[in-house]
Design goal:
6-stranded parallel sheet; TIM Barrel; alpha/beta; 41% helix; Aldehyde Oxidoreductase, domain 3; single chain; elongated; 2 domains; 4-stranded antiparallel sheet
Length: 284
């Protein structure tokens, strides 16, 4: 992973939050300059993401010898050794919690994403993330999604055009016409030509307008599978845009959705609700 100044600033903030330079326990025991070796072990199975972040945590505190057994994108089993670290005690003990926090969260996102990706792979459906990420950690979360085999939705409001329900509710206060979806697309295409345009539709009337407007992606948000099936039959093979499904989709619901002939599924839960992966650091 490329450690940009922005990402290094995130790491620096996390270390300051933990007051790593005021580790009174390590200093009080007079072991801060003791040269030690530690190993990070996996507590459960998963996919690794964030190892470069963990390395930078320790590197920010002093000189280290870093000997990874595996790299980001590799799968591991419970009990596997991830990396061996040699450094002064104040470096390893000071950076331990911050490094493990990053590693646990990002590997959790990658592992959770991988579960969904594997389930839909036979149908050639792509799993996308959303902007439902931890504040300040969006680039890291989206990196972890890619490590898990997923795809990134827009990273911010400027990267793509996306008409959501509150845009519709607001726009209809200034435009009374029943063809409001078509008009919104027309205005956005005129002002920002070439930008990817996604429409979130809520009901068949908006779906019919979306077909006429022909955006890049139409998103069925919180639709029942049977209604999506009816909607897609309305357009048949004339479709010139991608179909995306979104809205509180769980692993069980995927079985019904996968056979509908859609292109992509966006899931906020792969970033905001991914279970953390358990790692431990042991001095040997």
């Amino acid at each position: 992973m490329k450690l940009t100044p922005e990402i290094k600033a995130i790491i620096s903030h996390a270390l300051k939050e933990d007051r790593v330079f005021r580790d009174y326990t390590t200093r009080g025991l007079s072991i801060e300059n003791l040269n030690i070796t530690a190993v990070i072990y996996a507590g459960v199975d998963g996919r690794l993401a964030g190892l470069d972040i963990a390395r930078e945590v320790f590197k920010s505190l002093g000189k280290i010898k870093w000997s990874p057994v595996i790299e980001d994108g590799c799968d591991f089993r419970a009990g596997d050794e991830i990396v061996k670290i040699n450094a002064k005690a104040e470096v390893i003990l000071g950076g331990e919690r911050t490094a493990l926090n990053f590693l646990s969260h990002l590997s959790g996102v990658a592992t959770f994403t991988k579960r969904f990706v594997e389930l839909v792979s036979k149908n050639k459906i792509k799993i996308y993330d959303t902007r439902k990420t931890l504040p300040g950690l969006r680039k890291l979360d989206k990196y972890a999604v890619k490590i898990g085999g997923g795809y990134n939705h827009r990273i911010d409001l400027s990267q793509a055009l996306m008409i959501k329900d509150n845009h519709v509710n607001s726009f209809r206060k200034i435009y009374p016409g029943s063809d409001y979806i078509v008009e919104m697309v027309r205005r956005l295409r005129k002002r920002y030509p070439g930008k990817e345009l996604i429409i979130e539709v809520h009901g068949f009337q908006e779906w019919e307008q979306a077909i006429k407007a022909c955006p890049d992606v139409v998103m069925f948000d919180n639709w029942k599978p049977e209604d999506i099936e009816i909607a897609l039959k309305m357009i048949g093979k004339r479709r010139k845009f991608e179909i995306e499904i979104s809205g509180n989709i769980n692993l069980e619901q995927l079985e019904k959705i996968m056979e509908l002939g859609i292109d992509r599924i966006s899931l906020g839960k792969i970033t905001h609700s991914a279970p953390a992966i358990d790692f431990s650091l042991e001095v040997i």
